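Minutes, project check-in
Item: structure for the 128-residue chain
Input as provided by the requester:
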Amino acid sequence: MADRETMTGHRRIEAAELNRIEIIDGGRRLCLSVRDAAGRPASMSLPIECLNAVVTAVPRSDRDLLADAARSVHRLDSWTLRDEGAGLVLTLHLPDGARIAFGVKPSQIAAIASFAGCSSVPNRDLLN
C-alpha cells in the first residue's frame, strides 16, 4: 500500500517521485507535490521555517562533510601525533570533542613545522 494510516490517525505517504516544489502563501510555506507508489498524486505543505530542519536531517557523505569543512575554519583545541608503525597519525581535536585523524608523512610534518617557524621537526609521539 502506498500510504498508511496508523492507529493514532497518522497518515504516512510513501512517495515514489517528487513532481514539483513550490513556495506558496506569500513565501510562508513550502509545498511538495509527489506521486505515491500506486501512482496517485499527493502533496504536503510545510511552514518555510521547517526547510532548514529538513535539509539538515538528510544524511551526508563523508566527502560532502569534508568539502564543507575545507570551506570553513574551525577552532583547534589540541592535537596528537603518533607513530602507528605503518606511518604517522595526526589527530586534530575540536573544542566540541569531535576528532579527525589523518595519515601523514614525516616530510609533511617537517613542512608544517618549517612553515610555522619551528627550528626542528617535533618528536614523533608529541601531545599538544
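Outcome recorded: Helices lie at 51-57, 62-71, 106-115.
No further action items on this chain.
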